[in-house]
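Inverse folding, one chain.
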C-alpha cells in the first residue's frame, strides 16, 4: 500500500498544485521520485514529530492540501497533542498517513509496536479514521481524500500487501465492503487483517461453517446501518483487528450494539491484542500468531465459539 500511496499521490499532485507531501525523516526509497518531480512541494521536517504535524496543520490553514507520512508509533504517539489541537480542533483538512500499524515493525520491539493508534484517533472529534485493506482500497481512498474537507487518519501496514479484489469496488468512506456472504455468523475485519480473515473464512467454509465477511475499512464514521442490520440477522458478530481490543474496531462495533438494543441480541466477540504489551520481539506473523490472529488460529477460535455457544 505504500507504493499505491505514493503513486496515487504523484498522480494527484500533477493536477493539483496545492498538494504537498511532508515526511518526518522516514520513507527512504519511497519518496525520491516525488521529491525530484515536485521540488519544494515535498518537505522532510526531520525527526521532530510535533513540529512535523503542526507544520502540516499550518499548510492546511493556508489552503494547501498536505499529506503527512510517518511511522505510526512515532507520529501518533509523540505528536498526539498537535494532532488534537492543531489538526482536529481547528478542523484542518490534513491527511495523516501512518505506516506500520500493529506489528508491522514487530522485530523492533514495543517502541515500534502500534497497538493504540486507532483508539486514540477515533476519540478525536472531527477526525475520520480509515484502515484500507489492500492497494485497491488504498487507491480509491486516496482519490477521495483529495477533496475531503475534514481531518483524516489513514493507517496502513509496512510490507507488500496483496490485492484482495479481482474486480472494481464501490468504495465509500463510512461504508463497509462485503467480501462474502454467510449464514452462521458475520466477521468484520479492518486493514491488513482482511487478507487473513479471507483465509480463515475459507477454512471455516470447508468445515461447513458459513461466515459472512466485510472489510470495515472505516472505523470512524463506523457503518452503523450495516452493524444494526447484522444484529438482526446473526447471533454472533466477530471483529478482528491488528490493534488492542480496547478502543478499536471491536469497541466501535460494540458502541453501536449497545446503542441499538432494539435491533437484535447478537453476541460480540472481539479478536485483537490483549490489554498487555508484547512479551517478546518478533516478526508480524510470529507476534500475530502468538495473539491468535493468524488465519488458522482465527478460524479455530471462531469455530470454537460457535460450537460452544450452540452447545
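Residues assigned per position:
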Amino acid at each position: 500500500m505504500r507504493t499505491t500511496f505514493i503513486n496515487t499521490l504523484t498522480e494527484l499532485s500533477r493536477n493539483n498544485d496545492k498538494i504537498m507531501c511532508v515526511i518526518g525523516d522516514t520513507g527512504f526509497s519511497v519518496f525520491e521520485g516525488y521529491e525530484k518531480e515536485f521540488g519544494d512541494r515535498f518537505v522532510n521536517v526531520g525527526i521532530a514529530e510535533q513540529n512535523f504535524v503542526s507544520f502540516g496543520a499550518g499548510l492546511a490553514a493556508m489552503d494547501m492540501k498536505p499529506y503527512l507520512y510517518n511511522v505510526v508509533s512515532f507520529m501518533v504517539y509523540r505528536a498526539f497533542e498537535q494532532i488534537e489541537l492543531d489538526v482536529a480542533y481547528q478542523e484542518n483538512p490534513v491527511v495523516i498517513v501512518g505506516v506500520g500499524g500493529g506489528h508491522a515493525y514487530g522485530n523492533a520491539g514495543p517502541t515500534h509496536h502500534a497497538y493504540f493508534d486507532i483508539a486514540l484517533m477515533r476519540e478525536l472529534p472531527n477526525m475520520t479514521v480509515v484502515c484500507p485493506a489492500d492497494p485497491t482500497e488504498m487507491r480509491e481512498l486516496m482519490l477521495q481524500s483529495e477533496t475531503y474537507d475534514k481531518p483524516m487518519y489513514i493507517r496502513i501496514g509496512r510490507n507488500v500487501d496483496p490485492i484482495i479484489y479481482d474486480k472494481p469496488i464501490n468504495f465509500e468512506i463510512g461504508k463497509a465492503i462485503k467480501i462474502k456472504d454467510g449464514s452462521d455468523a458475520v466477521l468484520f475485519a479492518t486493514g491488513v487483517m482482511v487478507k487473513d480473515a479471507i483465509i480463515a473464512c475459507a477454512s471455516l467454509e470447508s468445515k461447513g461453517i458459513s461466515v459472512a465477511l466485510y472489510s470495515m475499512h472505516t472505523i470512524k464514521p463506523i457503518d452503523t446501518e450495516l452493524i444494526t442490520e447484522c444484529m438482526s440477522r446473526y447471533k454472533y458478530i466477530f471483529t478482528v483487528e491488528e490493534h488492542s481490543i480496547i478502543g478499536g474496531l471491536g469497541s466501535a462495533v460494540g458502541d453501536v450494539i449497545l446503542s441499538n438494543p432494539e435491533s437484535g441480541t447478537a453476541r460480540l466477540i472481539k479478536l485483537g491484542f490483549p490489554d498487555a504489551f508484547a512479551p517478546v520481539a518478533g516478526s508480524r506473523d510470529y507476534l500475530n500468531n502468538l495473539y491468535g490472529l493468524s488465519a488458522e488460529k482465527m478460524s479455530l477460535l471462531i469455530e470454537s465459539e460457535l460450537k460452544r455457544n450452540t452447545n
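The mean pLDDT is 94. The longest strand covers residues 236-244.
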